[in-house]
Structure formats: C-alpha cells, structure tokens
Amino acid sequence: MLQQSQSFCDYLQQVRQVSPHTLANYRRDLDKFIHYCDSQNLDNISAVNAHHIRQCIAQLHRQGLSGRSIQRLLSALRSWFRFAIKEQWIKQDPSTGISAPKSPKPLPKTMDVDQTADFMSVDHEDDFYGARDSAILETMYSSGLRLAELTSLNIIDIDFSAGTVLARGKGNKQRLLPLGKLAINAIKQWLAQRKLFAEQDEPAVFISKKGQRLKPRSIQARFNRQSLAKGHPVNPHMLRHSFASHMLESSGDLRAVQELLGHANISTTQVYTHLDFQHLAKVYDNAHPRAQKKDD
C-alpha cells in the first residue's frame, strides 16, 4: 500500500504540480490511514472498504483529532481513491457517503459588563482621538454594529431626537436600531471635533484627521491601542458579541437579539444562549410555579 500511496504522491507532484505544503499535507493524512491499515493487516488498497475507513476515523477521533482535520483526511483519501480507480486498482470509491464528525463550534469570546465598562473608558490626551474613540466604542456597543456597518454610517443615518441609527448590514439590508443615551452624548461630543477636520460634503460620521471616511483597518488599530491600554485584547467583533450576550442575558428574548444583530437565521443567534448558571437559576426561581418555597 505504501507503493500505491507513493505513486499517488508522485502524480500530485509531477502532474498536478501541487505546492510542497499541499503535498506534505497529503502525505501526512495518507500516512495516518496507512498506519491504521497496517494494524489491520491490509496491504493493498483494493482490500479497503467503508468499514475500515469508518473505524479509522473513529479511532482518530477518540485520539483527539478534530472534525476539521478528519475532513481533510477524508478529502485526501477520496483523491487517492479517484486516482486508484483511474489506475484500475479498485472499481469504486469506498469512502462514498462517509462524513467526518462535526467539531463543536467555539463560543464567541465576550466580556462581562464590568470588563466592557472598563474597556469603554477612553483616556486620550488628544481631544480629536479621545472623542472619536469614545464615540466609536459607545456606538458599536450601544447598537451591536458590525465593523463594516460602523464605517459606513453617515450623519444622516442618526436621528438624535428619536434615539435611533440606521445600519446597513450584509447584502445592503437596512435595519433601524436604538441608540443609547451614552452613545448619543459621545457622538455629539465627537461631532464638535469632527467639524474642525471634515472635508466639505463628507457624509461619514467617523473620519480621519485628513477629513475622510475612516477605514475598517484604522478602527481595528484603535481597538489594538485601547486593548494595550486596558491590558486585554478586544476586537470589534468581540464588542458586538458582548452586546449580544448582555442583551440576551437581560431580556432572554432570542428573537429580539436576532433582529438587533441582523441575523438572517435564528440558528446564528443561538450561539449566545450560553447563559451562566446563576442567571438561569434566577430566572427559574422567578418563573417556575413550583420554585417558590412557601413557609410551612
């Protein structure tokens, strides 16, 4: 089987001319499977069937190989089996219909309320940057905006009297979001600085000192600066995750949070349902008819 594997790798290198990195990945994945086959006394690719592949996958999964890594191994095997069919070593692909185990989706990183409040406190000696950074953070956290939604904000999108902001999400979909008092105050203070630098007819809310619309990488750089000042890394999406988590913990209304975030599917929002046990216990005690203990 090693010879058949080597023939396939030669084909990848000489005919398909894959990169050295890709070739090394193929070799590594095939070696894992061949090692299993050796343990089962399988010395030819023609002896491999679906049962052997499933057993190999199960063994590797028990040993800690992730679903993503197993998916890559399966992809390498399928390429090898297709090559084997062309070479007439086998008649059909034994991996057909076999899928890798799903890896659990990592929970989004969030800050608790106190950590968020600390991160939001901006201390900058320059009035322009101080006002702008504070307005950026307050607006993102107040309305759960994506980075692209924040950079695309125009002054006309903010209604101070109604306390709302119009966000343009993915696919240019618009949604009207509430804007908190702290965010409104921070934006008003920023606009006082903005007018000193803005180019004529520039519609963007957030601009650079050159008077032009601020770009996403510039905001990411400001987050990096704030992260260094506060001693822990925070990126724009983490602030959005924190907004969603705090809203859900306070309200318990998953549909409302879905609307605020602009998620097309509720399944995307469900990742935020990792409420802590104390919150769940409190909700239970207040809501369940038999949770209330009565005196004897």
Range of strand content: under 5%
Helix amount: 55-70%
Order of helices and strands: HHHHHHHEEEHHHHHH
Task: Count the DSSP helices.
Answer: 13
Secondary structure category: mainly alpha
**Backbone CA Rg:** 28 Å
> Count of DSSP E strands?
3
Q: How far do the termini sit from each other?
A: 76 Å
Question: What is the general shape?
Answer: elongated
- Report the sheet with the most strands, covering strand number, pairing sense and barrel closure: 3 strands, antiparallel
Mean pLDDT over all positions: 87
Major sheet: order of its strands?
1-2-3
- The residue ranges in which pLDDT falls below 50 over 5 or more consecutive positions are none
Description:
Strands 1-2-3 form a 3-stranded antiparallel beta sheet, with no helix packed on it. The mean pLDDT is 87. With 296 residues, the chain is mostly helical. The chain has 13 helices and 3 strands; from the N terminus they run H-H-H-H-H-H-H-E-E-E-H-H-H-H-H-H. The longest helix is centred in the first third of the chain and has 20 residues. Helix 1 runs antiparallel to helix 2, helix 6 runs antiparallel to helix 8 and helix 10 packs antiparallel against helix 11. A hairpin with a 4-residue loop joins strand 1 and strand 2.
